[in-house]
Design goal:
By secondary structure, the protein is an alpha+beta fold. The protein is 23% helix and 20% strand.
Length: 177
């Protein structure tokens, strides 16, 4: 972070209501300061705002944000649920068998449990389309030290981790996320 950034913190714990609220703040601030912002980067619990200091002052942006109250605004009545293709072939899911062993489940049980869940996108980052999703089913939790197979993880692979999962849109070197 630098002198032309502002970090808004909405909490210190992942809450499935936060992605919608953080998204509202990002959209509202982007609209109000169009042409002066470099980027708005949401995360699980915060929003990083990068602005161009020649066109916008931190004081003006801070004043606007302090007077912005979107907390009472209700979420949309219908959610925009997207179904993503997920491939469980050993070629693209190299951790599947070790995850099944770790969780004392069969591979088919892991697939059924994983694919029957609905996930919330809390943030997108690292590479275009790399989605950070909330709340992997508890039965699929795995210590992060055991999470990745050696080598590269293919695009749209599922990378199991303690409570969340990540979906890279392009191949990532395993262990680097």
């Amino acid at each position: 972070m630098g002198e032309s950034t502002i970090l808004l913190e909405f909490g210190h714990k992942i809450d499935l209501d936060l992605p919608f609220l953080i998204g509202q703040y990002a959209a509202t601030i982007k609209q109000a300061f169009a042409g002066t912002l470099i980027n708005c980067t949401p995360s699980y619990t915060s929003l990083l705002i990068e602005f161009h200091p020649i066109y916008c002052s931190s004081e003006a942006l801070t004043h606007y944000i302090q007077n912005l109250n979107l907390a009472g605004k209700p979420p949309p009545s219908s959610l925009d649920i997207k179904t993503l293709p997920t491939y469980y072939s050993p070629k693209v899911a190299p951790d599947l068998e070790s995850l099944a062993r770790h969780c004392s489940l069969s591979v088919d049980e892991v697939i059924t449990l994983h694919s029957s869940s609905t996930y919330t996108v809390c943030a997108i980052g690292f590479t275009p389309g790399f989605a950070f999703l909330a709340e992997l089913p508890k039965a699929l939790h795995m210590p992060s030290t055991k999470r990745h197979a050696p080598g590269y993880v293919k695009a749209v692979s599922v990378l199991p981790t303690t409570k969340r999962r990540y979906i890279p849109a392009i191949p990532q070197e395993a262990g680097k996320s």
